[in-house]
Amino acid sequence: MTTQSPVSAEAKLFKHLQDEFERRDNARLQLLSLIAHDLSTPASTVRGYLEMLEHGLAGDLTPKQKKLVKAGMRGMERLQRMILDMDIFAKLEAKRLSLQIAPVLLHEVVYESTQMLYEAITNGKIGLQMRVSESLPAVAGDRLRLGQIFTNLISNAVKYSPEGGQIVVQADLMDDVIQVSVADTGIGIDLDTQRQLFTPFFRADSDVVRQKAGTGVGLVIVKMLVEMHGGEIWVESEPGVGTTMYFTLPIVKDS
Q: Which of 143, 166, 176 is nearest to 248 (CA)?
């Protein structure tokens, strides 16, 4: 007759620490989701009132008042994007976000994403080139989540590009995947920072970065969504020259 050896004190401690870490991680994700949920309603309300002012529903505005309302609208749009990022990140980390996969034409998604960022691109006097052919085969993806990938990457490129900078969005067919790149002529990223880009809540130790609003989860969301689609993502960058983000997406194969 054999007897089982008692569980060692070290194993018990490890199990306890593992359970505690999981508990705290779940609590952190629940808090993030709660914050995003509680902020979304007042943010939408404030934006609604600003839109009413912008459309003259409370009377005609002076040029100075119109300028202030416009600035308020831009601020609320940024806040709502940050709230959305927090909510999506919490759902992704908790594995509570699923994809609705269907054939998607990338040129349509890119156009929709750039239209959403039109004002930021125009205000920054940034040149934008879209090299995404309508003849490319459809990718197998979730249209909404693909839109979030492009919006996050293009928004980052706009945010860290100087006035008069250039952004190029390109897509090329390579075997059974489409390789997408979003290139800018912005501040660039050093090698140490590149290694931490996809770390949750990481923000580079730079005066330029600190001046820009952000949650530190935008690129993490992009990476997780790309990988959920079966793709890969990587970065090439040089400080003072610019950054190019690359990712791949599988195409729809003929049955």
A: 176
Percent of the chain scoring above 90 in pLDDT: 41
Residue 164 backbone zone (phi > 0: left; psi -120 to 50: alpha; other: beta)? left
User: For the whole prediction, is pTM greater than 0.85?
Assistant: no
Q: Count how many domains the chain has.
A: 2
Indicate if the alpha-carbon torsion angle 201, 184, 181, 129 is positive or negative. positive
User: Domain containing 240 — which CATH number?
Assistant: 3.30.565.10
**Tokens 């897509």 — which residue?**
171
How does pLDDT run across 216-237, given as a tens digit for each residue?
788 999 999 999 999 999 999 9
Side chain identity at 13, as an amino acid letter? Answer: L
* 80 token code pair: 């709502």
Residues with Cβ within 8 Å of 186's Cβ and at least 6 positions away in sequence, in order, are 157, 160, 161, 162, 165, 242, 243
Helix/strand/coil percent split, the chain, to 5: 50, 20, 30
